[in-house]
Amino acid sequence: MAARLRGGMILRNATILAGLVALSISVSAQAAPDPAKRGASVVTNHEAWNLYEKYLNAWNTTSIEQRFKIAEKVLSDNIEYLTVRHDLSTGRSLVIEDMATFHEKFPGGHFEIGDVSSHHNVALLTWVIIQADGTEFARGHDQLTVDRDGKISKIITFGPSAKDPN
Question: DSSP for 77-116?
Answer without folding.
Answer: EEEEEE-SSS--EESSHHHHHHHHHHHHHSTT-EEEEEEE
